[in-house]
Specification:
By secondary structure, the chain is an all-alpha fold. The chain is built from 4 helices and no strands. Helix 1 (24-38) packs antiparallel against helix 2 (46-74) and helix 3 (79-99) packs antiparallel against helix 4. The structure holds fe (ii) ion (FE2) (2 copies).
Length: 145
């Protein structure tokens, strides 16, 4: 029934202007992840795909750390909840990294698409969107150092 595919079905979409919050650093990082995910479509070789997967996981890690720091500085009241969502996403990515060696390139591309164009897209549109008004009240925190 499940055949190793994610059980939950989410709406999936490519990056679009709808995802732009007007918070430059966050917007750039979100877009960068979609750009990187898009490179999995089409042909490639296993070594290159594994390397790209590792950099995707690394970019995700950096984005989540920076976003959490930003939210902490702005005093976002739902930070603990938001961190749990990030933790879940990191677990999904780690699972993929662990399983990718035994998967075909198409299967990897499909999982990456689910994670970024599905899970991450929905996270931006729902959970991230929720912090936008608060972060915009704190322009001094928007450029993290
Ligand atoms: Fe987030
Ligand atoms: Fe985010």
């Amino acid at each position: 029934m499940n055949e190793g595919k994610p059980a939950m079905s989410l709406s999936q979409a490519d990056w679009s202007e709808r995802l732009v919050f007007g918070i430059a650093r966050v917007d750039a990082q979100h877009k960068q992840l979609f750009d990187l995910a898009a490179t999995f479509e089409g042909s490639g070789d296993q070594i290159r795909v594994m390397k790209t997967l590792a950099s995707l996981a690394n970019y995700v890690r950096i984005h989540l750390i920076e976003e959490e720091l930003l939210l902490e500085r702005c005093g976002y009241p739902k930070l603990a909840e938001h961190k749990e969502l990030h933790k879940h996403f990191k677990t999904l990515l780690q699972q993929l990294l662990a399983e990718a060696n035994g998967m075909t390139l198409d299967q990897i591309a499909e999982r990456v698409h689910y994670l970024i164009n599905g899970w991450f897209y929905n996270h931006i549109m729902i959970a991230d969107l929720d912090y936008v008004p608060l972060v915009k009240e704190h322009p001094e925190h928007q450029l993290l150092e």
